[in-house]
Design goal:
Layout (H helix, E strand, L loop, with lengths): L4 H27 L4 E6 L14 E7 L3 H14 L6 E5 L13 E7 L8 H11 E12 L5 H17 L9 H7 L3 E9 L9 E8 L3
Length: 211
């Protein structure tokens, strides 16, 4: 997994306007649905931490980039774990999660499925570690509809990824979820507030592992 020390340093500053314009509220609403044993995939610097509730019994935070993981640990040391819950941080990629089958009740993926090197392998692993009926909570930017926006996303894919931690703005993530065998319980199209045009198209919602 490539490391992105400079991106880790500026990540929160880059998102600050977007968070204030509504992304933080999206995180809060989404994470109200997390419960039981919960795993967050690619937790980054820990921007989701304030929004977990006491419905979560144990929180596992995975992050493959050591520079991001270090900043997340610093946040936990400074602010404490969310709602006082038992929390652990592991440097692990989504393509090979070091957990047994059916280890978690909830998985969380926010602004991460755009960056994983192998999205189908990552989704298969997430499905594997979820219990039957377990939820995958998703907040992701995706490939836009219409030829003009998608054309620009394709053109900007490589240069944007080079400066944005490997982010791919043109991934059809909703389609990939279905292809990985998830049930789509609810998935709404929306837009990332105060974001450049190639980053605006988003989905937010819940998928689940079939029983």
């Amino acid at each position: 997994m490539p490391e992105h020390p400079h991106f880790a340093r500026f990540y929160e500053r880059m998102l600050s306007g977007t968070e204030k314009a509504g992304l933080a509220d999206m995180r809060r609403d989404l994470l109200a649905g997390a419960e039981g044993r919960t795993i967050e995939i690619g937790a980054g610097t820990g921007l989701n931490l304030p929004y977990y509730t006491t419905s979560v019994s144990h929180l596992t935070l995975t992050e493959p980039d050591p520079h991001m993981a270090r900043r997340m640990r610093e946040r936990l040391a400074s602010d404490g774990p969310p709602a006082g819950m038992e929390t652990e941080v592991l440097e692990a990629g989504a393509e090979a999660l070091p957990f047994e089958d059916e280890s978690f009740d909830t998985a969380v993926a926010t602004l991460v499925l755009c960056t994983v090197p192998e999205i189908q392998a990552s989704l298969s692993e997430i499905r594997r570690v979820l219990v039957e009926g377990g939820a995958l909570l998703v907040l992701e930017h995706i490939r836009g509809e219409g030829p003009v926006r998608s054309w620009w996303q394709d053109r900007l894919d490589r240069p944007w990824g080079a400066v944005a931690g490997g982010c791919h703005p043109n991934r059809p993530t909703a389609d990939r979820l279905a292809e990985a065998g998830f049930w789509i319980d609810s998935m709404e199209p929306t837009e990332m507030p105060k974001a450049p045009p190639w980053m605006k198209p988003m989905i937010v919602g819940r998928a689940s592992r079939p029983r």
